[in-house]
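Can you please make up a whole protein chain along with its backbone structure tokens because I've never seen that pairing?
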Amino acid sequence: MKLEKFGSCLLVLVLATVLAFSCSKKDDDDDEATDPGTGTGSGTGTGTGTGGTTTSDNFFYDAALNTIPALETSVSLRLIEEWSFGNVMYEVFDLFQEYVNERDEGKIGLPNIFKSLHQTGSFYEGAKSRCETVEDIEITSPFADQGSGTYNCVLNDEEADSHHGNAIKEVGSKKDAILTWTASSFSELGVVKGSYDETEGDITLDLTGMSTGFSWRLAFSGNEKDKFFESLHMMKYTPSGYKISIVGKGYAEGESKYFLFKIMDSETTELSTAKYFCFSADASETTLQGMSPADGTDLDGVSANCADYKTDVAAMTMYPIDGSKLPSEQADFTGTGTYNILLDLE
């Protein structure tokens, strides 16, 4: 093929890809999510995306999209070996890339946090319709580092192909839950523990999971009305490979708004000691492609755009790079059932 013809074909391919991904950050997500124990369920609601609170069944997923950075996908002409796993900026993008199921199913994998929340958040409504009402009971998460909470509607499912533990409490507009799951022939285990106020927009969430060869954890608190996260802790851990730990604070959206991340990873010389990165709230894949580890600064070098956050971010304790705050094997879960993932309801 002549070079000119190859260039024309490449341009057509790029344009086609642009059209395929021309989807806004808050696109509606109307797919079906599996309800544990029944094989059906809706999980079909969408967040408002306009500063109001989420009114969907899958409120953890939708409220997270409104509260923490969800990075838009763009089209890159970079060589795949340059923009891929092991590149710290790509790793940040992969973790926080916006996930819209009808567009991205089969294309974006774990540990993308929005994909993970889309899957697990949908369990709530199915569990709510089937759980057993009890007197308030304190239940510890099967991943004990997440702590415990008080719940009054509980359910353990131990089906042939999936196990789920569910504990729920609703008081007024506030919803609290522990939702656990297994998947991929029980090679994937996880827990989400969270609280969401439908009226106020406050959300606190701690999600952790492990699959074959890697694990991940996200914990954050913020307000979806304000599009602001007060604190965020994120880590991807590969025992035999790449590890990245992030803490941060700031705005997920808004004109002339910013968020500050402190990042450390295991493979990048410049990030063996954590560095600070100030991002515009409208950062996208293209933004991160134009960045490198050299853009990280020490605390004194943080941009004036993120100056309001640097004291709080500096004080945040990062998940250790050794993965000690994440699960890496089944034994790290201490619940009941064959896979230690069901809830102890005694």
Q: What stands out?
A: Residues 27-332 form one domain. Residues 3-20 form the longest helix (18 residues). DSSP finds eight helices and eleven strands in the chain.
